[in-house]
Amino acid sequence: MHATYTAKVVGLKANKGEFDSADGKKIKYDYTKVFVELSLRGDKSRGVATEEYNVGDSDLFDTIKHIPLPFMCEIDMEKTSTGSEEREQVVGFRPTAAVSTTTGEVKPSVANLKSAS
Question: Taxonomically, which superkingdom (predicted)?
């Protein structure tokens, strides 16, 4: 199952390296994560929380780090199942607009936004 979501990115993080596992093998990692704002739901909830999504390797960070935070994006998700467990995996990520930090206004015509899918 495939879906595209619009989200507000409020943070970015990249990391690349390796570590030794318990059995002595080298484990490599290389990712860029975005932190997106989600509305809290429920009768006794107010405000927002953040959720992190892995959107690519650490090279992606260099293509989006210049975009002022927060910014809007489209995230393409693929939902899969093992039969007993569901997972969502990001298969596409596109910055689309800047958000004013003072007014919250979305500014869709930002010239410096680059596609990162």
Answer: Bacteria
